[in-house]
């Protein structure tokens, strides 16, 4: 897919401001939280007692909640795919490092802690078959992730704006459900991760806002294009051992929707939020084609919400290999 020269030029202009962007949206490593700040410390005298408490409380978590937590963990741990994808975006130069490649690496470094922290919790809980989880993670990285949008920065950062908001919602909702189950540690874990995701979402939304300011018509056309394609989350490609790519997404999605962690209505809510955030209805200086695209975009949420209301979620209990069998070695 050939990317117009203007988009490269826009990326170059924003790249000049990257030092300020990094300072605004990313936290210095020495000041940031680390998984060891939150999970029980094996050097502590009360480590065994803390782990026993973690395991006892985790017994209260429903199977659906564990499934969603595992799926979120695997998605977070597939970072090699996301970094390599973003490094290929036009304007991001990894051979002669520039501001954009520094952004991608530092964003990756912050995101890397999420999967690490969640994995440690699952491991200590005793509720999960960790080998099956690790197989699923390896598959997700090995299978790759092709959005069909190439190296176009407009399309890619529209996508990441949406995707980071979706992960924020998912982690925030899991935190609330964990709190209801009196699992304060898990609530803290997911709430902390959700805060990172929101900060990252704001960064990507700020990139898109700059695109709108400098190239409004082409951004509008790109926005309509990616919404028409639908925003597929990385979890869309989940599988367990012995399965084909993507076979696990439907039962995983059903579990998330039954719990209200991430639903079709949330998809529409995010789109409406982005339309407001970027003030799409009031963007001026558009070509006739872009004007039509803007009108179509503004009508999309209403159409999508009507479809979402008609969707029915399956109550079928899927036998996830991720969930440890009762009595099996933990």
Structure commentary:
This protein has about 325 residues and is mainly alpha-helical. The protein has one domain: Ribonucleotide Reductase, subunit A. About 65% of the residues lie in helices and about 0% in strands. The protein is built from 13 helices and no strands. α4 packs across α7, α8 packs across α12 and α10 packs parallel to α13. It starts with a helix and ends in a 20-residue tail after the last helix. The model has no long low-confidence stretch (mean pLDDT about 95).
Question: In a nutshell, what does this entry contain?
Answer:
Helices cover 66% and strands 0% of the residues. It has helices spanning 5-15, 18-25, 47-58, 63-77, 79-87, 99-125, 130-143, 153-180, 184-214, 216-229, 249-259, 264-277, 288-310.
Shape field: globular
Uncertain segments are none
Order of helices and strands: HHHHHHHHHHHHH
CATH architecture: Orthogonal Bundle
The number of domains:
1
Beta-strand share of residues: under 5%
State the fourth-level CATH superfamily.
Ribonucleotide Reductase, subunit A
How many strands?
0
Indicate the CATH class: Mainly Alpha
